[in-house]
Every structure is written in C-alpha cells, then in structure tokens.
C-alpha cells in the first residue's frame, strides 16, 4: 500500500512540474486561439447579459427539440410495428444502444456511490 502511495505522489509531482513548466504557455495559447469569443472589457454586466442570452436562447429552442423528440418517437413506434421487416444490423444497433445506456447508468451509479463497486466505503 505504501508503494502505491509513493508512486501516486511521484506521479503527482511529475504532473505538477509539467503544468508549472507548460501550463502558462498552454493558457496563453488557448486564449490567443479563442480571442474572438472574449468580450472586452470583461465586466459583470456583460457576463450577466451573456448568461441571460444563453438561458433564453436555450429556452427558445425547446419547442423545436420537443417536436424533434416526438418525430423520433413516432419513428421508433413505426419500427416496432414493422419489426418483422427489420434487418439483423438494425436489431444489433438497437441492442448496442440499449447496452450503452445501461453501461452509462451503471457508471453513474458507481460515481454516485463515491467510486465504490459494492456501495460500501472502504
């Protein structure tokens, strides 16, 4: 156990050295590449305005997303009605999608329990 702790500490020190050496350069490069997205001057009022624009833009997109959802659901209902005509590939894709949803559910449960598999804290 102590060897793993020592290894973790050395890896952490390596990462810290890396970020102290290259982090500032990466930060400046990222800001330079995304300069068109930066509002000048960065005031509280401007941040609040952008926040409101994002919120109300998302709210305005709800009706179109709602309609798209019902179209997708109608398509799935139609597929279920004509399931005898489905190809094996389509059923395989549906099975993989279901398996992926289940895997994300399980991963979320594990994260919610604090990254424990059994649910008990060790």
UniProtKB/TrEMBL annotation:
Signal peptide: none
Broad class of where this protein is predominantly found: mitochondrion
The keyword Zinc is assigned to this record: no
Cellular component terms (Gene Ontology): mitochondrial membrane; proton-transporting ATP synthase complex
Domain of life: Eukaryota
A biological process term (GO) from this entry: proton motive force-driven ATP synthesis
Protein name per Swiss-Prot or TrEMBL: ATP synthase subunit g, mitochondrial
Organism of origin: Deinandra increscens subsp. villosa
Highest classification ranks of the organism: Eukaryota, Viridiplantae, Streptophyta, Embryophyta, Tracheophyta
């Amino acid at each position: 156990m102590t060897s793993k702790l020592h290894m973790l500490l050395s890896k952490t020190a390596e990462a810290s050295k890396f970020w102290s050496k290259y982090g500032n350069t990466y930060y400046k490069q990222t800001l330079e590449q995304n300069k068109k997205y930066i509002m000048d001057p960065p005031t509280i009022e401007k941040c609040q305005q952008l926040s409101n624009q994002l919120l109300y833009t998302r709210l305005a997109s709800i009706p179109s997303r709602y309609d798209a959802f019902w179209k997708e659901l109608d398509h799935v209902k139609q597929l279920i009605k004509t399931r005898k005509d489905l190809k094996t590939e389509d059923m395989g894709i549906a099975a993989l999608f279901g398996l992926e949803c289940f895997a994300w559910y399980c991963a979320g449960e594990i994260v919610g329990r604090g990254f424990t598999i059994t649910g008990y804290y060790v």
